């Protein structure tokens, strides 16, 4: 059994942004030498998410409007008594989740035709880390 | 270490539907020969989900009403400028997620008494695929 | 490859509560003897969740208010025709999800600085079980 771990560091210019990770993940699978297994892609922060969906800009606009409706930014969170102003970012992270498992088959990510992996930054403009861990044979 | 992969193809008659997968998954665990490990059950589409909950028809009605409230079908999604009309299906997929990991113990799915695995179709009436990958010893 | 499984039993005094699991999980990783791998932490119930976020009491109050807004307790669920009164607990479980994968690196949980693992009880005051399964080398 092989295990291979890499850490990605992202620093978005905007406070809220989506980063398409699939092109970054493909060479990590190759470097892992794993033919059959699982790849965990997990944000190491509580104000970010990782999810699988379509790489279509209109849909991405829909996702942001939807996240803002269900977990709005605003001044009224109890969490802000600590001096933070990112209460919404924590709830958005819970909503889309902070991690996915990508199956690896014959040395490649075994994704559907339109499936792409995204990092969702909800409180950026600073260095944030993602762990990518591949395990298999 | 063993790895075993199967692909399921579903084609629901209704556009939106729940399919109970647990009876289909049990023989896959047996065929894998894995006694201790993890089983990934993951939709290969961005308009479908996989989740674990109760097999109770009233609850399923509640889940559909709830999904429609939080991620409603409608004509107003930016994504529809591409010619699609399934913007809600993408958001519903994000909400319930597209995959679960089922633990395997002593050669069986190690689920709680009422836990069942469901495929949630949000834009069906066509062939859709699910990957099931079992990894362990 | 090693696989190690433990079951936790929780019994919250309140019907709805958060339980910080990280201190309970650390010795399980040690007992597993796994240096590199994955740890699944999964509620064995359909009215509970497991998630990763911050251990900050104000944020926890925000999370409860948010869950109540998006998946409110109330008498109007179809599921209640079965005699149950916990329809909201099922929807809250779908929202936050019932499981997480924690990466294990050099024999420890490889979490970000502020990441902590929580069990979310949505229908407690009785024994509930969590499966913790560690797999790796």
What does this protein structure show overall?
- Three copies of one chain form a homotrimer.
- In chain A, the strands form two sheets. Chain A has a five-stranded antiparallel β-sheet with strand order 1-8-3-5-6, with helices on one face. A three-stranded antiparallel β-sheet of chain A has the order 2-7-4.
- The first copy, chain A, has 137 residues and is an alpha+beta fold.
- In chain A, strand 5 (99-105) and strand 6 (108-109) form a beta hairpin.
- The first copy, chain A, is built from three helices and eight strands.
- Chain A is elongated.
- Chains in contact: A-B, A-C, B-C.
The largest pleated sheet of chain A is described as: 5 strands, antiparallel
Beta-strand fraction estimate of chain A? 35-45%
Number of helices of chain A: 3
Write down how many β-strands of chain A occur, each being a DSSP E stretch of 2 or more residues.
8
Radius of gyration of chain A: 16 Å
Order of strands, main sheet of chain A, comes to 1-8-3-5-6
What is the secondary structure topology, with strand pairs?
3 copies of one chain form a homotrimer.
Chain A: E1 2-10, E2 17-20, H1 22-32, E3 37-43, E4 48-53, H2 57-70, H3 87-96, E5 99-105, E6 108-109, E7 116-121, E8 128-136
Antiparallel strand pairs in A: 1-8, 2-7, 3-5, 3-8, 4-7, 5-6
Provide key terms for this protein.
26% helix; three-stranded antiparallel β-sheet; homotrimer; alpha+beta; five-stranded antiparallel β-sheet
């Amino acid at each position: 059994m092989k295990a291979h771990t890499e850490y990605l560091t992202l620093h978005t210019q905007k406070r809220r942004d989506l980063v398409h990770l699939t092109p970054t993940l493909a060479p990590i699978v190759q470097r892992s030498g794993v033919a059959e297994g699982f790849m965990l892609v997990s944000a190491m922060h509580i104000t970010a998410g990782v999810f699988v969906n379509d790489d279509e800009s209109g849909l991405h606009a829909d996702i942001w409007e939807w996240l803002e409706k269900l977990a709005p930014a605003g001044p009224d969170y109890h969490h802000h008594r600590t001096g933070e102003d990112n209460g919404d970012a924590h709830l958005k992270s819970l909503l889309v989740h902070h991690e996915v498992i990508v199956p690896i088959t014959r040395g490649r990510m075994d994704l559907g035709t339109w499936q792409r992996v995204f990092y969702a930054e909800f409180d950026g403009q600073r260095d944030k880390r993602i762990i990518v861990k591949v395990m298999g044979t």
